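Note to self: keep these together.
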Amino acid sequence: MYARYFKRVIDFVLSLIALIVLSPVLLILCGLGAVFMRGNPFFTQLRPGKDEKIFKLIKFRTMDNRKDKDGNLLPDEVRLNAYGKFLRSTSLDELPELLNILVGDMAIIGPRPLLVRYLERYNDEQKHRHDVRPGLTGYAQAHGRNAVSWEEKFAMDVWYTRNISFMTDVKIIIDTVKSVLKRDGISSETSATMEEFMGTPEDKVCEWSAPN
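Structure:
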């Protein structure tokens, strides 16, 4: 009942209220982003949503467009400047996604929307993460963020799609706030952001187990 009828209504109302209340913060971040990113403060990219429907995600940019002498973008860890690191560690870069939630492309809680090219790399089980709307935050973001493996993250995503409830969403919000305040899991062990997902080998076993 909650997932089918009430979740979307709550998402719409809360995202609208948040956009109104946070409008001064959004305006300030737009100005700062224009300065520190030397231009457009927004980052937009096509992402797959519910039932793999493609939509345009909007965030604040955390990486500048510096390039090498051949015109190629420099590595993420170089383009992720101090201002971008601040946005990521506080999750302020995600605030424009409130617009995606308002129009129905996303939810407040759900699996994070990833790259379109990953669609063909998911196994049959992992594809179920697209059974619901992607979220501003999700179970994986509240329990490891970028510090857990792709396989663990996808296992958490699929578990959530099968266990949606109001109390689960409330707990994820609380755990997300704790994670942001502690600034846990911002980077993976080997990258400033998260390594690209190249697919899961058939013999690879996921170490994550669902909570009791």
